Amino acid sequence: MYYSQTGPGAQAGVKACEYRFTQNSPTHTPAEGVPHREKIDIIYGLLDSSDEPASSMLLGEIIVNYWVSFATTLDPNDG
Q1: CB distance 16 to 9 below 8 Å
Q2: Three-state SS for 38?
Q3: For residue 35, what are the domain limits?
Q4: The whole model's pTM is what?
Q5: How many Å from the N-terminal Cα to the C-terminal Cα in the chain?
Q6: Which SUPFAM superfamilies match (predicted)?
Q7: Is residue 60 part of a domain?
Q8: Helices in 1-79 by DSSP H: which ranges?
């Protein structure tokens, strides 16, 4: 995650975080991008290790750590 330099919050002088999710989707082409729904299982740590590659499981752990850090300290890069 990174601090927004151009978003509405930053323009108003408020510290705001952004992230870009680019994990490949099994159901959408790169041109379509990644639908919001694709992120939910990763963000909430709901991936099934029997169905997902190790890279997706690692990404899930990293993203959960960012969200926990953000929820507890308001800084996603704290953990």
Answers
A1: yes
A2: helix
A3: 24-74
A4: 0.67
A5: 12
A6: alpha/beta-Hydrolases (SSF53474)
A7: yes
A8: 8-11, 36-43, 54-73
